[in-house]
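Moderator note: this is an archived Q&A kept for reference. The question asked for a predicted structure of one protein chain; the sequence and the answer are reproduced below.
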Amino acid sequence: MGFYANKIFPWVLDATEPKEMAEQRRLILSNVRGEVLEIGIGTGVNLPFYPDNIKTVVGLEPSDAMQPRALQRANETGRSIEWHSGYGEKMPFVDERFDTVVAADVLCTVDNVDAVLEEAYRVLKPGGRLHFIEHGLAKEDNIRRWQIRLNGFSKVIACGCQLTRNIEKHIRDSNFLIEELVDVAPFSGTDALYTHIRGIALKPE
């Protein structure tokens, strides 16, 4: 990874966080349980929103440049991170280890969404759940047109982030069973480009 990705982008991520995301993170993380894996833990922005009984989060992250800020947040929230460098398409974990997998604005950047979902399914215990808050292709025509126009620009300035992926379809086409799915209202201003879905998907027992 280059200078921008290693030194600048971690700060850009935190500085450009839409104000509406705090509530969305709280909603999707309020009832996680057991041993938790967060795919693409990044700078640890989710850590303040985990329930008090979650003391350790297993984090998988391809960019070690994110680790210092993530560890700082872990210290601030009284939690620890079991940090693993790697990619969601090939997770370094045994089958059926985790009770919960968390994906928060990560499926927009991975190389292969379906492979990541397959791996999440593999490492979850039967009865385990995938908690997700992800942005993708808008249902609103006016927003969708701008997403298509700006997708190439987004990939460059946001280290591969794509605006036009149909994340809901990928999850529905996987082996997961969707228990809860919410279309989040578009955010304000230019953040409307990041139209989100929030939900929980089950690995059946």
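Archived answer notes: The first strand starts at residue 36 and ends at 39.
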